[in-house]
Model the fold of this input.
Amino acid sequence: MLQAKEASETVRTDVTFVSNGLTPADHLHTPDDRAGLPRTDEALGEPSHVEHIVSDEADETTPGHLRQGHEHCRTALGTHLRSENEWVLRSVDQIGRYDSFVGIESLAPRPLVMIAGSESTTAHFSRTAVERAGEPRELFWIDGASHFGLHDKDEYVSPALAELTSFFGEHPSRPPVEGRAA
Done:
């Protein structure tokens, strides 16, 4: 029988979940069972295996969206005091099974507007949410904006705020449908 011990240290690597180009599903199919082995090791008293989410370094060879992520998340602009920029490898299978869209249709009749940049690598999440949601719904595109540009660049944030004001002006919150929670 395995006895769990409290690990006194954490193993950190320079391998990053985002910058290595793999999705959570890709991690599920690696030969070394990226989630199971770390869980077993931790149960046997080994330290947790932690990886960076966004690389601490980026240069001109770093793909554009990853460089933007670094420029935003690893600098004073986007860093938060409590953000350690880490994730625990033992959770990769849980991340791979997570589905943000389960039950999204139950939002209706509450209005849903998704705002995405035309250059955003994460725009497919907004598109999928709008496709699966009930009415009223809208996907608003901002030309030239990336995922990170929508965080703090006025040329993208201002049109986003204008669209939010317009959309929710046209579609105020409705009372809940009988039998559904408010």
User: Anything to note?
Assistant: Helices lie at 24-28, 36-43, 64-73, 92-97, 123-132, 149-152, 154-170. Residues 1-20 have pLDDT under 50 and may be disordered.
